[in-house]
Amino acid sequence: MPSEVPAKTSGSSWWWLLLLIQLAYWEPHVWHSNWRYAIKYGVSSSKLTKPDMPKGCDWLRAPLGDKDCHYEAQAAIRLKGRDQYGKALESFDNGVNWYFSGDVQEYKPEVFKGSIETVAVVLSWEQKDGD
Hints:
21% of the residues lie in helices and 29% in strands. It is an alpha+beta fold and 131 residues long. A six-stranded mixed beta sheet has the order 1-6-2-3-4-5. It is elongated, with a radius of gyration of 25 Å. The protein starts with 11 loop residues before the first helix and ends with a strand. The model has no long low-confidence stretch (mean pLDDT 79).
């Protein structure tokens, strides 16, 4: 009768637990990375400005525990284009309002000539209550 070999026990389960904790810590940093927003808005990373996410809602921030809040990224997209007469236009609010380049007077173009180019994407963080 063959003898039974006892199952090996090792600390590998602890490594898996540590790996899961580390992944949970990295997840927001990976999800809110520059390359993700560059792909989302179709710009190169050099046209993207993203400050670090604030730490106020972190579980490990004093006082320890759930703060019942999180941060969401808000994007302001700067666009350039030309109207039907070929005049250069700029928008600083995702194309809602347009201005002649270098001017402060609002302009409502009827038709755009050529393509609209994304010049820059500026992200900011807004704190939201609740999860």
